[in-house]
Amino acid sequence: MHLETSPLVPVLRTDSGSSKVLLRPRTSQEVAHILRYCHERNLAVSPQGGNTGMVGGSTPVFDEIIVSTALMNQIVSFHNVSGVLVCQAGCVLEELSRYVEERGFVVPLDLGAKGSCHIGGNVATNAGGLRFLRYGSLRGTVLGLEVVLADGTILNCLTSLRKDNTGYDLKQLFIGSEGTLGVITAVSILCPPKPSAVNVAFLGCPGFAEVLQTFCTCRGMLGEILSAFEFMDAECMKLVGLHLHLACPVQESPFYVLIETSGSGAGHDAEKLSGFLEQVLGSGLVTDGTLATDQRRIKMLWALRERITEALSRDGYVYKYDLSLPLDRLYDLVSDLRARLGLHAKHVVGYGHLGDGNLHLNVTAEAFSPSLLGTLEPYVYEWTARQRGSVSAEHGLGFKKKDVLGYSKPPEALQLMQQLKALLDPKGILNPYKTLPTRT
Amino acid sequence: MHLETSPLVPVLRTDSGSSKVLLRPRTSQEVAHILRYCHERNLAVSPQGGNTGMVGGSTPVFDEIIVSTALMNQIVSFHNVSGVLVCQAGCVLEELSRYVEERGFVVPLDLGAKGSCHIGGNVATNAGGLRFLRYGSLRGTVLGLEVVLADGTILNCLTSLRKDNTGYDLKQLFIGSEGTLGVITAVSILCPPKPSAVNVAFLGCPGFAEVLQTFCTCRGMLGEILSAFEFMDAECMKLVGLHLHLACPVQESPFYVLIETSGSGAGHDAEKLSGFLEQVLGSGLVTDGTLATDQRRIKMLWALRERITEALSRDGYVYKYDLSLPLDRLYDLVSDLRARLGLHAKHVVGYGHLGDGNLHLNVTAEAFSPSLLGTLEPYVYEWTARQRGSVSAEHGLGFKKKDVLGYSKPPEALQLMQQLKALLDPKGILNPYKTLPTRT
Ligand SMILES: Cc1cc2nc3c(=O)[nH]c(=O)nc-3n(C[C@H](O)[C@H](O)[C@H](O)COP(=O)(O)OP(=O)(O)OC[C@H]3O[C@@H](n4cnc5c(N)ncnc54)[C@H](O)[C@@H]3O)c2cc1C
Ligand SMILES: Cc1cc2nc3c(=O)[nH]c(=O)nc-3n(C[C@H](O)[C@H](O)[C@H](O)COP(=O)(O)OP(=O)(O)OC[C@H]3O[C@@H](n4cnc5c(N)ncnc54)[C@H](O)[C@@H]3O)c2cc1C
Asked: Which sequence ranges form a coiled-coil region, renumbered to this chain (chains A, B) (predicted)?
């Protein structure tokens, strides 16, 4: 449904790994052999999916052996009544998406990197993305996992059951653990029925307060058919225009909002949506808007939002922050930073999954500069911590953010995380130097 | 929205605890003191919420000290834009429900025991219930927990953020762990907006195949407004009539289905529902049906389904099974058992959350009999294991089912569970003899 993005190398410009060995197993058994071998010999391993992660989690820091899921791309089964898909971890998200859509279902997860990222990588990072608002977290939609543990043991929790309360839910340990507790080799995921009607509205708002009020109005009036509520500021639009030559489809505004509805009755949905648009245009919450109902126009509107990452990476060096914040303070940080940085930054932009309280804050500059970094950090993290926000809403910690965990989690939590790591990976061979803070 | 049930003592007839001490702390600090004290002295503890659990998890086996959340019933905060509710673990589900409904939201969880069960107990058992089909698992809707660990450490993961990928998601360890890994003292949960239109249809189906086809039709035609799909067989209806004097609202049929819709547009929903009813009545999938749109009638119809547990307990001794099974084989087990037991059982009934593949299979007899038990077990578990089902879909394992875990989980999973238990509760003071199998 959304546009493919171009190669993402620039995003990862700061992390060039130096591994001499890249292994591409085809089966869980092969992964088990590799880990058993590495475990015996104390060799460190970096699991790698599509390598689209934002925090340097899948690239080796020193000489870790890369275990890539690139060849583990088989669909195991799909049940066309229940919508349960079982597949190997290396299946590319977009391919899974196509596969289940042909059968009347959708993958409950969608993101700009879909053309490259693997479902195993998505699960390992607990990816959020564009459908989170509607279908919720992978913690609810992933039904089962097969995981190879550090010592090569295959842990089969690959159930396809919607409900299973027999003991502790072990798969949760591996969702979002970024390859530090085990290698995910297969995934069972519940796909919801494909909505028969999809609409996208792209709106211009005069201020952030109006963006928030538009969100509240929208949730009330569109209710259960609302499937995405994304926002971007005028700076984002400028960059998307400048670097990708995408035209703004509405009057220039300080803020833009993309609303998607997905429902089972085209007529009903259109009626709800037009009632909503009348309301927000009439009350001045929205100054201009456009509506798309056909695939091509829908893709075009989504591209504006999805290709921001790409536009940013063409603008220069990018400092990236992915934060959860209380809605009413969400944009204040962007304004604060803009004032704080003045001419030291090229652009300070804010966009993201507003419906989930998730801000992507990005700062571009001609080149990396330690002094700019010093102005940004720990300022951004301290600001976020004061709002009791999260310093990593969906991207995880990986290598780049592992030392900021303490801004969002208390010491008792950190200690328990370290105990879990020691339990599951006593030799520390799984993705070392990632996720957990450097011990001091 | 649903009817209250009467006291549930008969359900727990087989487990009468023998504790001499019952503590009712008011704060997390008090819970921490209790656990610190018990931990130092190797005293075992049984956490207890509303005591409505089905598997004897909250009653002491020997001399465990009961730590009840009965007095921890304060609401901490409610945010009326985001719908995030933060409260102490001892809040009664129905009271929370009333509180948030007055503010335009609903708790994403509802079950027959709502008048007595505590939110902490719900989280500790990872309860499923009647809204699971619509709002999904507590693993997605619970945003944060505060937990007191075995040694009295307070673990504060009580975030209110929709998304937070800073490290391992520790709260997941405690969801569904039935008080064996920590005592939940506070819960943060995301409440969805209250749907403005609710309808309930109660239908009679000529056979189980028709029940399944009705489900598929319904999912296709009602889509995102479908909020519950429950079924019960003719035996259930008989018992509800016999013991509770509730009248069947439609023509007598082999099976009954209760469908609830919840949406934001009354007119649209009614239209979708009547289109669906026309379709299923016209095609013979449904032989008779009734529709309720007002609160009183809706409650009346829900009572038929929700009070089955109560009717069963008045029928005699009840053997209870709570299974996840593939939809197409779900009812075969009930038929098989009926044939197998013949006159040895009073009644063999099947009902449950069909939309989630969850069968409640219950057998009643005049009194407990080891020979009847021997005919039922391990037959039921083996049957379920052959279908790769779950021997406990939503009720958990507690004391009664802990030794059947192996029918649904491989030895590697069991071992990791035991390691987690040893890590979090090295002295084994938290709800001993529960959830994990007796070591042999
Ligand atoms: C344009 C763009 C848009 C994006 N949009 C979003 C978004 O909306 N929401 C979001 O959450 N993220 C987003 N991301 C980030 C990224 O795409 C996701 O984190 C994605 O889930 C990573 O998948 P991957 O296969 O590329 O994993 P990789 O980058 O290869 O790996 C990510 C981490 O997971 C580990 N890992 C990978 N595979 C496995 C495995 N099989 N077993 C164990 N560990 C493994 C790696 O070691 C690493 O720590 C975006 C990225 C880009 C470039
Ligand atoms: C009529 C009826 C209908 C039901 N319907 C459903 C249904 O639809 N779906 C469903 O899933 N269940 C259902 N149940 C089962 C039961 O209601 C649920 O399991 C409920 O969530 C238990 O809550 P409680 O507060 O009564 O917990 P309790 O019974 O007191 O305890 C249950 C378990 O949780 C532990 N526990 C309780 N509180 C805490 C805490 N604060 N911290 C740590 N551990 C704790 C206990 O030690 C015990 O192991 C039903 C029960 C009845 C009687």
From this structure: none
Residue B229 is predicted with a pLDDT of 96
In this predicted model, what pLDDT tens digit does every residue of A58-77 receive, in sequence order? Answer: 999 999 999 999 999 999 99
Q: Hey, what are A14's tokens?
A: 């700061």
Same domain, A98 and A179: yes
Asked if A113 contacts A50 with a C-beta cutoff of 8 angstroms, the reply is: yes
Rounded to the nearest angstrom, the minimum Cα separation between A41 and chain B is 23
- What is the CATH number for B321? 3.30.70.2740
In this complex, is the C-beta atom of B28 within 8 Å of any C-beta atom belonging to chain A?
no
Find the mean pLDDT for residues A147-167. Answer: 97
Q: Quick one: A119 and A185 in the same domain? A: yes
**Residue ranges of E strands in B243-326:** 255-263, 288-292, 317-324
Domain co-membership, A86 together with A178: yes
Supply φ then ψ for residue A190, to 5 degrees: -90, 120
The DSSP bridge partners found for residue A142 are A189
Residue of B134, B153, B164 best to disrupt the A interface, most CBs of A under 10 A: B164
| pLDDT tens per residue, range B16-72 | 556 679 999 999 999 999 999 999 999 999 999 999 999 999 999 999 999 999 999
Name the residue range of residue B325's domain: 316-407
* Largest CA-CA distance found in chain B, in angstroms, rounded: 69
Contacts with B160 from chain A: Cβ below 8 Å: 388
The reply to whether A406 touches chain B by the CB within 8 Å rule is no
- Count of domains for chain A: 4
CATH assignment at residue A302: 3.30.70.2190
Q: How many residues does chain B have?
A: 440
Q: Looking at residues A410-426, what average pLDDT do you find? A: 98
Closest CA to A402 of A386, A416, A417, A412: A417
Domain boundary among B169, B190, B211: B190
- Provide the whole-model pTM: 0.94
Which residues, other chains included, contact A279 with Cβ-Cβ below 8 Å and sequence gap of 6+? A217, A221
Do B91 and B186 sit in the same domain of this protein?
Answer: yes
> Given A190, A218, A253, which residue is the final one in a domain?
A190
Look at ligand 2, atom 7, and give the residue with the nearest C-alpha. B129
Per-residue pLDDT band for A81 (boundaries 50, 70, 90) equals: confident
Same domain assignment for residues B296 and B383: no
Does one domain contain both A134 and A158?
yes
Residue with tokens 């020193």: A62
| Domain membership flag for residue B436 | no
Q: Quick one: B56 and B82 in the same domain?
A: no
The answer as to whether B357 is a domain residue is yes
What pLDDT sits at residue A440? 59
CB proximity A391 to B under 8 Å: yes
Verify cis geometry, omega within 30 degrees of 0, for the bond prior to B378.
yes
Q: A300 in a domain, yes or no?
A: yes
Does one domain contain both A360 and A330? yes
State in Å, rounded, how far the first CA of chain B is from the last one: 46
H-assigned helices in B314-367:
332-341
From B27, B107, B117, mutation site for ligand 2 pocket: most ligand atoms within 8 A of C-beta:
B117
Contact B364, B400 (CB under 8 A): no
CB A126 near ligand 1, within 6 Å: no
Can you tell me whether residue A401 is helix, strand or coil?
A: coil
Q: In what order do the strands lie in the sheet with B183-190?
A: B75-78, B84-88, B183-190, B142-148, B154-157
The verdict on a CB contact (< 8 Å) between B268 and A264 is: no
Strands of the sheet containing B65-68, edge to edge, are B22-23, B65-68, B45-48
CB A374: neighbour CB atoms within 10 A? 10
Give yes or no for residue A3 having a pLDDT over 50. no
> Is A123 within a domain?
yes
Separation of alpha carbons A44 and B328, rounded Å: 46
